[in-house]
Every structure is written in structure tokens, then in C-alpha cells.
Design a protein that fits this description.
Number of strands: 8
Radius of gyration: 16 Å
Strand order of the largest sheet: 1-2-4-3-5-6-7-8
Order of helices and strands: EEEHEHHEHEEHEH
Organism: Roseinatronobacter alkalisoli
GO molecular function: hydrolase activity
Shape: globular
Keywords: Hydrolase
Mean pLDDT: 97
Pfam family, one: DLH
Protein name: Dienelactone hydrolase family protein
CATH superfamily: Alpha/Beta hydrolase fold, catalytic domain
């Protein structure tokens, strides 16, 4: 269910909270694509909650438009809001979600998709988290201005034009500790609501690797 959170600058926003089932492994902040806190993303939250993670999905578009859900076949409004978002403000909202989970979880990690995948890199650089997981994150070069402060695992498609091979080579040089897994897929291969992009085999393997990585660093 959605619950209101407040960032350290006083901004109030909605955050989808999904409690862990069974014995909790830790907290996991899931970061959105440019489509908002979609039903598909809430499905990801349910899957990870079933694996024992307390989940929070901050509504990162609430500073531009509260409750914004962008159709997958009309990405332009989401792209515009992403470009208009101030990075420091976005990180404040992510930090508030991390702090909310820290009330009930000893350790908290971040996992992001697309725009959120890039933000997961920044979170690993500046926030007090245990680790981060990045699914085909966009805008990677803008995060190469500082070292990773925490362990990060990345999942990338070999045919993803958002992260071409030369960009990944730059990332390997900038982030020597970045754990990289490659899949014979394009962008958004783990989004099961986008049949044009979804690859079930790759998505299943990537999530299994992510769960193992999270369990290691949250344990």
C-alpha cells in the first residue's frame, strides 16, 4: 500500500510499502523506470517480498506530478519528467525511503530499473546502504564522477542501445568492483509487461543472481 514519506527538505511524497513474507532478510528500495510506480513494478515488489525483503518504492515523479503513471507505449511524458527531476532532490526521496526501511531492517539495499538503475549507482556512492543492483540503467556516464562506495551488481543486455559496449567499457574502468552480468537481450528485458522487450529466461536468471547478491550483502 502507499504511505506518505517526507524527505529532508520537507517534500511529502507517496511510497509503495510491501512487507516481507516470512523471516525478513532486510530492506530493499526499488527504483522506478520513467513510467512511475506501475502495477508491473509493484509485481516486482511482491516477488521480492515473497523472498523475504521489506520493500519500498518511492514515487520519484511526485515532485513533478503526483501519482503519475506513464503508459509503456507513450514514454515521452515520463522522459520529460525524468529530465526535469533534480538529481539531489531525487536522491533525497530515495534516502527517505531507505531511512523508512531502516526502522525495521538492519540493512537496506537499492535495486533499480532503467532510470532507477542509474540512480542505484548514485545511491551506492552517496547513501548509507548495504549494496545496489542495477538493471540496464540509463545515463551511466553521468555517474562516473565518483567511486562506488558499496558493492554493485549490474545486469545488461548485449543489444541494449542505451548501454552500448563502449559505455560498458568506460564503466568497467570507472568502477573496477562493479559486478557485471550480460544477457543476449535488448533494453527492458526484465519487464514482463512489455512483450516486445521481455525475455523470460534472462529475467529469471538475472533476478536469481540479484536475490543471491542481496542475500549475501544484507545477511
Amino acid at each position: 500500500m502507499f504511505k506518505p514519506l517526507t524527505a529532508d527538505d520537507g517534500h511529502r511524497f507517496e511510497c509503495w510499502m510491501q512487507p516481507a513474507e516470512g523471516s525478513p532478510q532486510g530492506g530493499l528500495v526499488i527504483l522506478q523506470e520513467i513510467f512511475g510506480v506501475t502495477e508491473q513494478l509493484r509485481g516486482v515488489a511482491r516477488d521480492y517480498a515473497a523472498k523475504g525483503f521489506n520493500i519500498a518504492i518511492p514515487a520519484l515523479f511526485d515532485r513533478q506530478q503526483r501519482g503519475a503513471i506513464i503508459p509503456f507505449d507513450n514514454a515521452a511524458p515520463g522522459r520529460d519528467m525524468m529530465l526535469a527531476a533534480k538529481p539531489d532532490d531525487t536522491m533525497r526521496d530515495i534516502a527517505a525511503a531507505v531511512n523508512a526501511l531502516a526502522q525495521t531492517s538492519n540493512k537496506v539495499a537499492v535495486l533499480g530499473f532503467c532510470w532507477g538503475g542509474g540512480l542505484a549507482i548514485r545511491a551506492a556512492q552517496v547513501l548509507d546502504i548495504a549494496c545496489a543492483v542495477r538493471f540496464y540503467g540509463t545515463r551511466l556516464p553521468q555517474y562516473m564522477d565518483m567511486a562506488l562506495g558499496k558493492p554493485v551488481q549490474g545486469h545488461f543486455g548485449t543489444r541494449d542501445d542505451h548501454v552500448p559496449p563502449e559505455m560498458l567499457d568506460q564503466a568497467r574502468a570507472a568502477f573496477p568492483t562493479l559486478e557485471i552480468h550480460m544477457y543476449d537481450c535488448g533494453h527492458a528485458f526484465a519487464n514482463d509487461a512489455r512483450p516486445d522487450a521481455y525475455d523470460a529466461e534472462a529475467a529469471t536468471l538475472a533476478h536469481a543472481r540479484a536475490q543471491a547478491f542481496l542475500s549475501t550483502h544484507l545477511g
